């Protein structure tokens, strides 16, 4: 599986708290599901470009 997120970006976004090592994988999987659903919506609408509205 391709890692979508950078750990440093996740740490920066989680201001004021520590980030457990298992959180990165779980978050990355959720983001990949979101991307997959957006791609399906894009294709269902006859487009080849994923846009913000697909999220």
Structure notes:
This protein is mainly alpha-helical. It has a domain of about 35 residues. Helices cover about 55% and strands about 0% of the residues. It contains two helices and no strands. The longest helix has 24 residues. It is elongated. It starts with 6 loop residues before the first helix and ends in an 11-residue tail after the last helix.
Pick out the low-confidence regions: none
Give the number of DSSP strands: 0
**Percent of residues in β-strands:** under 5%
How is the biggest beta sheet arranged? none
**Residue share in helix:** 55-70%
Task: State the separation between the terminal residues, measured CA to CA.
Answer: 21 Å
- Helix and strand succession? HH
- What is the SS-derived class? mainly alpha
Q: Evaluate the radius of gyration.
A: 14 Å
Number of distinct helices: 2
Report the principal-axis shape: elongated
* Oligomeric nature of the chains: single chain
């Amino acid at each position: 599986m391709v890692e979508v997120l950078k750990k440093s970006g996740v740490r920066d976004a989680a201001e004021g708290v520590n980030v457990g090592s298992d959180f990165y994988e779980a978050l990355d999987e959720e983001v990949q599901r979101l991307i997959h659903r957006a791609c399906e919506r894009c294709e269902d609408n006859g487009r080849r470009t994923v846009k913000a509205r697909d999220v």
